[in-house]
Amino acid sequence: LLLTTILISTIFIFLRRRRRGGLPLPPGPKGWPILGNLPQLGPKPHQTMHALSKLHGPLFRLRLGSAEVIVAASASIASEFLRTHDTNFSNRPPNSGAEHIAYNYNDLVFAPYGPRWRALRKLCALHLFSQKALEDLCYVREQEVAILARDLAGSCRPVNLGETLNVCATNALSRATIGWRVFVGKGEDVTAEEFKDMVMKVMRLAGVFNIGDFVPGLGWLDLQGVVGKMKKLHKRMDAFLDKLIGEHRKAAAGGEFAGKGLLSVMVRLQEEGEGEGGKLTDTEIKALLLNLFTAGTDTTSSTVEWALAELIRHPPLLHQAQKELDTVVGHDRLVCESDLPRLPFLSAIIKETFRLHPSTPLSLPRMASESCTINGYQIPKNATLLVNVWAIARDPAVWTAPVEFKPDRFMPGGVGAHLDVKGSDFEMIPFGAGRRICAGMSLGLRMVTFMTATLVHGFDWKLPNGVVAEKLDMEEAYGLTLQRAVPLMVVPVPRLA
């Protein structure tokens, strides 16, 4: 049976190649029979693809099983796909993560482009990510970040910074979405570690190149065990979300939290009946909450963790940022969100962190709805597009000393002074670009900046166990989110009066 499956897959690939004519396909490396280039990707595909772009150019092709995958690895090529041909690449290809984790494409991230997707995006934009929603919920973020600062100040031992930041980001988001804190507090809540574990596993599993996605005939074998892990993890996450929704409905029935949070809005819309794209289902509500609690928390905490790691490795930059904050904020209070526009060097630090450590190193995949021509090459219908965000932001043709952490490049007179991270400047697109740009970009950018400012202003930082700052491990762990391979363990030393 296995040999028959392999033979059928080989014939399918051969016939599909013979049907092509006209313009050439983009160049690319030779692959293995059946599996194509899958075995060559390694544990850090974004780095492998970066190396391949040096050999084959900024637009190249991989054959992953039976799937044609097109990789964009320069700002100009990415702009062709995500600006000029954005409409053609507004859908997602089929993948096991969307099927088995994200409620079978009923979420916002993987939903097909169309009325339902627009309705879900509009719902989030209006009630979470609009300027008015951000201002209305400013007090929530300030309260949660103040709790973060208090907990760090009271710590007398090394802390796992990423885990601590994730609790803060999750509570800020949960208050905006469901009306209360998911994590009660240190010593009172045993779910924080479990939730962080689930989120990290979701992000890592969703980023795996699953053989079954690319060689459908082998999917039933689940050779990597990925699908089995996804199904098991989905059950855990589904139970967590069911509990949240159940607690919300119980509280709402008792008159609590009436009208507070996105979940209240979704439940109300569900009760009112039909809306744009159809009536909201419980599955769609859970899928949307899953998106928010994964993409909206882990990306924030990991980016702040990377920022602080870089500043610890570069003490002069940390001191310069502290000096700016001391001048603007003083020593007798915590940073407020209203302070952020007056902190240009801190803003430069955030941009440099997004450049070197984009939370999503490879863009979420898109799919060509129709064949098109890019840079003189034919892009076949149904081809998968990956944009190497990580590689683009390290392009030596754009950036001097591209692998070095230099926030000054974003200060006046620097090469990046005119660039932002909001999808219009393709030299760095940590949130993506085009119609499928990250829906939560405005909140994510604000939260990352605010949390980083508080950590820099409120504390000096020491490394435990005699670790030397210059030797701090900066290895990456690949997933849907770019994590640190080794969690950042630090000792916070309060510096405010």
TrEMBL record:
**According to its record, how does it sit in the membrane?**
Single-pass membrane protein
Question: Might you report a single GO cellular component term?
Answer: membrane
The answer, when asked if Heme is one of the entry's keywords, is yes
Which GO terms fall under molecular function for this chain's record?
Answer: heme binding; iron ion binding; monooxygenase activity; oxidoreductase activity, acting on paired donors, with incorporation or reduction of molecular oxygen; terpene synthase activity
Q: Which residues cross the membrane?
A: none
Residues recorded as binding heme, renumbered to this chain, are: C438
Q: What is its main location?
A: membrane
Q: Which cofactor does it need?
A: heme
The metabolic or biological pathway listed in the UniProt record of this protein is: Steroid metabolism; cholesterol metabolism
Instruction: Tell me the compartments it is located in.
Output: Membrane
Q: Which PANTHER family match?
A: CYTOCHROME P450 98A9 (PTHR47944), FLAVONOID 3'-MONOOXYGENASE (PTHR47944:SF18)
Q: Which family does it belong to?
A: Belongs to the cytochrome P450 family.
Q: What is this protein called?
A: Flavonoid 3'-hydroxylase
- This protein's species is Lilium speciosum
